Amino acid sequence: MDALASEEYASQSKLLQEFTNVPSIDGAWVFQTNNGSKLLVVRNGEKGSPTKLEIVDQSHVEKEIHVAQSVHGPLYTDEWFHGISWNQEETLIAYIAEESPEPKPVFDYTGYRKEGSSEKDCNNWKGQGDWEEDWGETYSKKGRPSLFVLDIASGEVRAAKGISRSLSVGQVVWAPPSSCGREKYLIFVGWLEHNGFQNTPRKLGIKYCSNRPCSLYATLCPFEESDVDNAPVSDSKLESASVAINLTPSISSAFFPRFSKDGKLLVFLSANHAVDSGAHNATDSLHKINWPSDWKMDQYLEITDVVPIVMCPQDGCFPGLYCSSMLSDPWLSDRCTMILTSAWRSTEVILSIDVLSGKATRISPENSEYSWSALAVDGHNVLAVSSSPIDPPQIKYGHQVSLKDQTCTWVWDEVNNNPLMAANNKVKALLSHHQFSILKIPVTNPSDDLSDGGKLPFEAIFVSCKDSSHKPTILVLHGGPHSVSVSNYSKTSAFLASLGFNLLIVNYRGTPGFGEEALQSLPGKVGSQDVQDCLTALDYVIEEGLIDTSKVAVVGISHGGFLTTHLIGQAPDRFMAAAARNPVCNLSLMIGTTDIPDWCYAVACGSEGRQHASESPSPDHLRLFYQKSPIAHISKVKAPLLMLLGGADLRVPVSNGLQYARALRERGGEIRIMMFPDDIHEINIPQSDFESFLNIGVWFKKHLSISASDAAV
């Protein structure tokens, strides 16, 4: 590295650190003096070490329980399987942890050692045994998610019984106490492990994938088993009580179960359309079950729709539910209103849902282009966080105010004196000359086969510098393709903007938040419709006189990298530089190496792909995959490309990016490859994330010839 480059790295790394210092706000708790006085602290041990569970009462460690690896491994903390639930009396805690691994065969210098022989001999070694399927990206070294219950008084941990080995479990909650008995029931989500092609026993990747079939199940608390064990053999009802029961067999997806405060309703989300269509994410629906006070496990429960799928929303109207999480206690004190955070076109909003009428109301400010997320419910009120691409997170407290016309509105007060203010003020100063807006981009020349929703305008978030028409612009593309870029604060986007770049963040058709028809318009048309949407958005800001057409770069991750490499091949004269993080470059190579081969069929073939999906693709499908891939256009690429790859990526393995990079180099293209050997698809190890975006900043500044004065405004 020469002196000039070294100075650039030093300058940009100092700047990036300012944005990194702003913490994200992902959750909050409101403590009541008369409720929820105890706290569970989980300390997952290193491999082979016990898990430590601490019961904290009034800031005092009341009890410490060490759970041996022979009982279970670490607790799950991810977005799907994670689940920790206290019972009403605060005497039992249900949670999801890794099942202990099956014993491995043991060998020594004489060969195989039989069961029961000592393993203390230093000449012994453990074999590998049979390979087991896992849930792919981020789950490759984890044990099966299993349900356990801790009795706090005795410190005993028991595994739930009667759960099929074909299920992975998560998101456990306690059912309300029965009015006619002392049985304690647990409700959990179960994912079928036999979800491979043609119902074969394969676990397809679940990270970012809401289209994996799942149901709500009920099982008896394992500390209730003594009643079942002592029952007469002829009593079939008591025998069946030890077997988990599917509560939602009529629909293909049910998750995030929540009981109302009075215990009369069980409400849950469903990604039924994602499962049935094959799209890896789609519009959610909300459902409820009237929960009997004397429910028994052999009793049928009817499912009622609360918020259905929205196919084609009217302009400005509710576009449907798109929820990636749910508060553990989402209920207002009226007992019938839930608070949810959902994508609404290019913003994230807070919704109140009346589960009796099904009415969905936007309670975050309707005239705000900021994104809002609920953190906790406090009686009638809501604690939330709000941010924008140029404004760091601010904590807000919302409450309802009655108006003269007998209606109510929500008022949001800023929570001051929080520890984030100092870092936020520094970033605000760095972005003080920037603005942002959400642009509606009309679809040009829509084809006749498109649904009405597929013809509606899509959107782009435009973050502009002062005098933007003379500044370089970066086209920023999300992955998925069924994920969304919302108008919240992102340290990496803010960093790139502070360098003097305009940002055009495109939510092309297929993005959630715009209705189901718009989302379903993309499968089968990747590499064409989504590419055209990106170019249409670029044309729009050029025609409006907002950017300099001669200074444009493009960056994206995953499917965003797919679009990045497509754009520099299909429109080679429009981009001066590009950067791609773990991009999909060749679907015909990816199909045999990824944890989600069904995704390749879904995006390339559309809904018809499901009936043809196979672990051994036909020559015709391999040809189609190649034709829809960026590598088919590699001979036309002119822009210098920075390729950033995670060596442990199971979603888009490094072979995809390396093949493209080597082929580009073979043709004389300018390519730089950075490999992060321990990173997965996201490249989210903090040091790796920092280094990757630092290099993106240096790369774009070099190839777009941005000056120090440009970076200052």
Automatic annotation (TrEMBL):
Domain (Acylamino-acid-releasing enzyme N-terminal): residue spans on this chain: 35-428
Chief location of this protein within or outside the cell: cytoplasm
Subcellular location as annotated: Cytoplasm
One Gene Ontology term, aspect cellular component: cytoplasm
InterPro entries given in the database record: AARE_N, AB_hydrolase_fold, Pept_S9_AS, Peptidase_S9_cat
Keyword list, A-Z: Cytoplasm, Hydrolase
Keyword Hydrolase applies: yes
GO MF term list: omega peptidase activity; serine-type endopeptidase activity
Catalysed reactions, as listed in the record: Cleavage of an N-acetyl or N-formyl amino acid from the N-terminus of a polypeptide
Subunit-structure text: Homotetramer.
Family: Belongs to the peptidase S9C family.
Protein name (database record): acylaminoacyl-peptidase
